[in-house]
């Protein structure tokens, strides 16, 4: 069952990161990574072609109240996002009485390979289990996305099932859906 989420007043910190609500002041940083080729495509959306496109999506993030901005403490730059998305198991009888969500994330290419995304994901896992009392979290990846596969593994997600992800680009990407339970 889809658990409630509202990150409006939530600020989470790790050693190197601050996960916080988005503001319009983050627009330039958002556009910088959202326009990088290869970033959005691994999450199912095409690179942003204009700052106006990024502005529309940033406005949506702020209205939906379910996506964290990932700020790097060293330079106070927003380098990615982590969304607590709709649970694709919400209609599965096995999960009807349990609370959960699915997480998704992207990171500026300049910060890949430094262990930042597992750090952010582990922080959100703890928040969802300890503060929000979720029973489980889902996380998936396309079979071709080895970086996201490694984040899933490092964070303790376990294989649940093979899935076809229908992307915003109109493609279908085969992948894996994983789960971590409280």
From TrEMBL:
Residues 17-179 form the N-acetyltransferase domain. Keywords: Acyltransferase, Transferase. GO terms for cellular component: cytoplasm. One of its GO terms (molecular function) is protein-N-terminal-alanine acetyltransferase activity. Signal peptide: none annotated. The keyword Acyltransferase applies. It comes from the Bacteria. InterPro entries: Acyl_CoA_acyltransferase, GNAT_dom, N-acetyltransferase. The keyword Acyltransferase applies. PROSITE patterns: GNAT. Belongs to the acetyltransferase family. RimJ subfamily. This is Ribosomal-protein-alanine acetyltransferase. It comes from Coprobacillus cateniformis.
């Amino acid at each position: 069952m889809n658990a409630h989420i509202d990150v409006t007043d939530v600020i989470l910190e790790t050693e190197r990161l601050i996960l916080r609500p988005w503001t319009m002041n983050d627009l330039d940083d958002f556009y910088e990574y959202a326009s990088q080729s290869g970033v959005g495509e691994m999450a199912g959306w095409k690179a942003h072609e204009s700052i106006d496109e990024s502005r529309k999506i940033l406005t949506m993030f702020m209205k939906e109240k379910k996506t964290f901005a990932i700020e790097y403490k060293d330079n106070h730059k927003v380098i990615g996002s982590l969304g607590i998305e709709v649970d694709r198991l919400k209609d599965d009888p096995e999960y009807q009485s349990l609370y959960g969500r699915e997480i998704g994330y992207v990171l500026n290419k300049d910060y890949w390979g430094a262990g930042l995304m597992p750090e952010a994901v582990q922080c959100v896992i703890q928040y969802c289990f300890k503060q929000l009392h979720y029973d489980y979290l889902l996380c998936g990846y396309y079979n071709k996305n080895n970086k996201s596969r490694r984040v899933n593994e490092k964070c303790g997600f376990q294989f649940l099932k093979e899935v076809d992800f229908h992307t915003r680009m109109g493609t279908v990407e085969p992948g894996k859906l994983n789960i971590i339970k409280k």
